[in-house]
């Protein structure tokens, strides 16, 4: 990369695997690093041939988010994790189950646009379901998930999964 250059492609920490594999000439099996895309050409100032369509995020408490272009959809009423508002706090405040943000215009995620752009919410939920069904977010053979996945996990489901411990 040239000094002071910018790389604007959407990447994830998982992309480091495919990038290093390409750098060292290692061929990855189809069932290895299924969500990883090499961005090595971008580091060399060239176009990335197969940029990712979206990135899936998963919080420590099991909540999903998906980022595509300028849009981020969080499938949780709160932060999705331990920071305020937690999902139980957000639910008690009557906050909606999903949050949609335009990250270009609102990087601090202050204005939930889910009700204003329901078609974008539907499209991102459908994309996330597709990725979960296929067990991957990249081209290749569909992979089996190691557990059943409910992308619309509710606080009730989280408590059940934790054995009903009294923790937010």
UniProtKB/TrEMBL annotation:
<protein>
    <submittedName>
        <fullName>Uncharacterized protein</fullName>
    </submittedName>
</protein>
<feature type="compositionally biased region" description="Basic residues">
    <location>
        <begin position="154"/>
        <end position="168"/>
    </location>
</feature>
<feature type="region of interest" description="Disordered">
    <location>
        <begin position="136"/>
        <end position="168"/>
    </location>
</feature>
<dbReference type="InterPro" id="IPR017850">
    <property type="entry name" value="Alkaline_phosphatase_core_sf"/>
</dbReference>
<dbReference type="InterPro" id="IPR052701">
    <property type="entry name" value="GAG_Ulvan_Degrading_Sulfatases"/>
</dbReference>
């Amino acid at each position: 990369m040239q000094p002071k250059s910018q790389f604007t492609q959407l990447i994830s920490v998982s992309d480091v695997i495919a990038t290093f594999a390409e750098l060292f000439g290692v061929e990855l099996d189809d069932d290895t690093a299924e969500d990883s895309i090499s961005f090595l050409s971008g580091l060399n100032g060239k176009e990335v041939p197969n940029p990712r369509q979206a990135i899936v995020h998963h919080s420590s408490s099991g909540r999903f988010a998906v980022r595509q272009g300028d849009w981020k959809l969080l499938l949780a009423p709160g932060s999705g994790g331990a920071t305020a508002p937690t999902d139980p706090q957000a639910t008690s405040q009557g906050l909606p189950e999903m949050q949609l943000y335009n990250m270009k215009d609102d990087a601090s995620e202050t204005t939930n646009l889910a009700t204003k752009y329901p078609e974008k919410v539907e499209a991102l939920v459908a994309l996330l379901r597709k990725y979960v069904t296929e067990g991957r977010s990249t081209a290749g053979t569909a992979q089996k998930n190691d557990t059943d996945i409910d992308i619309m996990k509710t606080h009730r489901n989280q408590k059940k999964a934790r054995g009903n411990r009294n923790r937010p």
